[in-house]
Amino acid sequence: MPIRRPEPIAVRRNRRPKPKPETDALGFGRFFTDHMFMMDYEDSRGWHDPRIVPYGPIELDPAAKVLHYGQMTFEGMKAYRSPSGGIRLFRPDMNLKRLSRSNVRLGIPPIDEELVSEAIRRLVLLDRDWLPAAPGTSLYIRPFILAVEPLLGVSPSREYRLIMIMTPVGSYYEKGGDPVSIRIETEYVRAVRGGLGGAKTAGNYAASLKAQEEAASRGFAQVLWLDGVHRKYIEEVGSMNVFFRIGEKVVTPALSGSILDGVTRDSVLRLLNHWGIGTEERRIAIDEVAAACRNGTMAEAFGTGTAAVVSPIGELDWDGERLLVGNPGEAGPLTRRLYDELTGIQTGRAPDPFGWTVALDGSEEPAKPGRD
Ligand SMILES: *Cc1c(COP(=O)(O)O)cnc(C)c1O
């Protein structure tokens, strides 16, 4: 394929911007901004027609492959407001690379990362007034790719649509939240090596819903997934990567192909190494976790992900046995330090020694009522 300059992004402004919700009502993923980005793919044309349009329902042929075979990928990242009012993204290149990797696994053509990166910049700047200012709030950006070819044959689609929507996120998770109780899942599995676990795709979530619902009905916040083959090694917690501080070492499951390569996971490992704290990426048997809880060496445990950043785990339930982590009822010191440091870097409150943040600037005028 010849290298060509990306097509310019067409913009059709929303003439009827919505009122912004109150910060207290935000929650996660309940309100959407005034615009969305879209572009299309056909085998013969590649990705084309990049455009920003008013947010709204999309039309999809009922035979679109995604609706029958789940061929899709997605990403999740956030824009943050800095103390001086600027807007920052956190390691967006990692999300775009991961989207391309997920695409490869799902048989979807790669994206033009430069073009999607420009689309993020334009969309965030256009809807910048939707980025809340209160501490702990952010604007969540959700790009996703759907197989839209109307054909019920089981084969990779020859047509796709990339859509990107944005939702303001409240400060629900501020301070990393209180430690939660987690149920160790011994019946269901979410992914196996060789399957889709390393890709960000809807099917992994579909596989997790029943277990999550059963755990929630028993009062647990999330499930801790074990590997699908031996039912023995730790994988992830809910849809977050998981870390344990056992004694003076911090351990997390190695990327084996069945868990997601989290941007927050990578950032936590880099920070810990920077601080001189020993880390290990390896297989962690549930028996090792249980033994450490029983003998009092399980000092801290936490999940990591873009949504909650760092989320402390207070106890684990293993077939009815309560396994306690650290000091009951409070997040451990390292969990808190990681949360503060990461959110500090993300919002520009703390120095960014790794060059992780990308400041957005540009002349894009925010959407205002009455403009076209
Ligand atoms: C998105 C996701 C994560 C967290 O990844 P981040 O890049 O840190 O947000 C972890 N596990 C699963 C299954 C995910 O989908």
UniProtKB/TrEMBL annotation:
**Pfam families listed in its UniProt record:** Aminotran_4
Q: Could you tell me one molecular function GO term of this UniProt entry?
A: branched-chain-amino-acid transaminase activity
| Reaction catalyzed | L-leucine + 2-oxoglutarate = 4-methyl-2-oxopentanoate + L-glutamate; L-isoleucine + 2-oxoglutarate = (S)-3-methyl-2-oxopentanoate + L-glutamate; L-valine + 2-oxoglutarate = 3-methyl-2-oxobutanoate + L-glutamate
Is Amino-acid biosynthesis set as a keyword in this record? yes
In its keyword annotation, does this UniProt entry include Transferase? Answer: yes
Q: Which SUPFAM superfamilies match?
A: D-aminoacid aminotransferase-like PLP-dependent enzymes
CDD domains per UniProt: BCAT_beta_family
**PROSITE patterns, per the entry:** AA_TRANSFER_CLASS_4
* Stored InterPro entries: Aminotrans_IV, Aminotrans_IV_CS, Aminotransferase-like, B_amino_transII, BCAT-like_C, BCAT-like_N, BCAT_family
A GO BP entry is: L-leucine biosynthetic process
Q: Look up the record and name the cofactor or cofactors this protein needs.
A: pyridoxal 5'-phosphate
Instruction: Alphabetically list the UniProt keywords.
Output: Amino-acid biosynthesis, Aminotransferase, Branched-chain amino acid biosynthesis, Pyridoxal phosphate, Transferase
Q: Which residues carry this modification: N6-(pyridoxal phosphate)lysine?
A: K200
Query: What does the record give as its pathway?
Result: Amino-acid biosynthesis; L-leucine biosynthesis; L-leucine from 3-methyl-2-oxobutanoate: step 4/4; Amino-acid biosynthesis; L-isoleucine biosynthesis; L-isoleucine from 2-oxobutanoate: step 4/4; Amino-acid biosynthesis; L-valine biosynthesis; L-valine from pyruvate: step 4/4
- Identify the stretch(es) annotated as Disordered: 1-25, 353-372
The enzyme's E.C. designation: 2.6.1.42
Q: Which PANTHER family match?
A: BRANCHED-CHAIN-AMINO-ACID AMINOTRANSFERASE, SUBGROUP IIII AMINOTRANSFERASE
The family annotation for this protein states:
Belongs to the class-IV pyridoxal-phosphate-dependent aminotransferase family.
What is the protein's given name? Branched-chain-amino-acid aminotransferase
Q: Which organism is it from?
A: Cohnella zeiphila
**Highest classification ranks of the organism:** Bacteria, Bacillati, Bacillota, Bacilli, Bacillales
